[in-house]
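Hi again,

Forgot to attach this to my earlier email, sorry! This is the prediction with coenzyme A bound. I've pasted everything inline since the attachment limit keeps bouncing my files.
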Amino acid sequence: MIRAAITAVAGYVPENVVTNFDLEKMVDTTDEWIITRTGIKERRMMNDPTKATSDMGVGAVLELCKKRGISPEEIDLLICGTVTPDMVFPATANLICAKIGAKNAWGYDLSAACSGFIYALATGSQFIMTGKYKKVVIVGADMMSRILDFTDRATCVIFGDGCGAVLLEPTTEELGVMDFELKSDGNGVNFLHMKAGGSLHPSSHETIDKKMHYVYQEGQSVFKHAVYSMAEVSASIMEKNKLKAEDIAWLVPHQANKRIVDATANRMGIGEEKIMMNIERYGNTTAGTIPLLLWDFEKQLKKGDNLIISAFGGGFTWGSVWVKWAY
Ligand SMILES: CC(C)(COP(=O)(O)OP(=O)(O)OC[C@H]1O[C@@H](n2cnc3c(N)ncnc32)[C@H](O)[C@@H]1OP(=O)(O)O)[C@@H](O)C(=O)NCCC(=O)NCCS
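Structure tokens for the complex follow:
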């Protein structure tokens, strides 16, 4: 059986650091509130108006190719999970491929908000498992600062900009993407969305005046759904595959809120020492959080480690992927 192994990981975050203290000067908030409610201390925000999500993707994918010693021309397919594409169309994946010279690749964007990376990982792995492709790049990238209302203290403090990427290659060993459980429920639309810029409310003076081009979130409702769903799906994939807490080397959880992560870990029976966290430095980078975690923790990973990767996001979308680390 051919499996899709992650053979390299890379990341890119903008240089510009925005601390909680910086936000105190912009909205009525405090460093203490943000840390206790979310765990975030600082986040990155792109301050060059000429740069967009694809430019972060370029940074991550070029590093990925360099680390693996391959040329961008060897990439067969590039999937980009994002809800902040450079433009409505063409796809950010196409722009990344063009900018790095991946001229033999095709690609597309995948819109699943904070679950964008795990949806793309599950999807991309199928092209490897069928034997169709040898090199598939999965990117998770979001420039949330471009869709935040910096007068809304309940949303602007939790998000940041960032991007990560992994390379999938075939293996016949018992390694790589082992299983996944993915879910969605469009009834979640009311709690987390961006109202305008699509076919329902095309951009107009009115949509601008009404601030309809920003992230709209009912934090408490999202929180309740996230705590329940992320914990359930993570426990479910373990039960289905007869994995016990002691079999898991790492929980790789979407970085939305430390309290959501703690609830998931509790349900799985996993101790704090096995949870990857970097929310304090980057905030919620939407599709970027999971590959950024893998990038940050890469040196601590060992071949054969069982990882449970879990996410929850707008849609609602959620799910878990079981990965056996391949190097
Ligand atoms: C957004 C979130 C951090 C808010 O935390 P919370 O504990 O639910 O806070 P609440 O919304 O109940 O607000 C509590 C109080 O803090 C206030 N508040 C909100 N943002 C604040 C801020 N940045 N600074 C200070 N006070 C703030 C509220 O106005 C409210 O005040 P009130 O009690 O006087 O009305 C939390 O709901 C959350 O993380 N939700 C999920 C987010 C998420 O996962 N989103 C991405 C999808 S994965």
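Residues 219-240 form the longest helix (22 residues). The two ends are 19 Å apart (CA to CA).

That should be everything now.

G.
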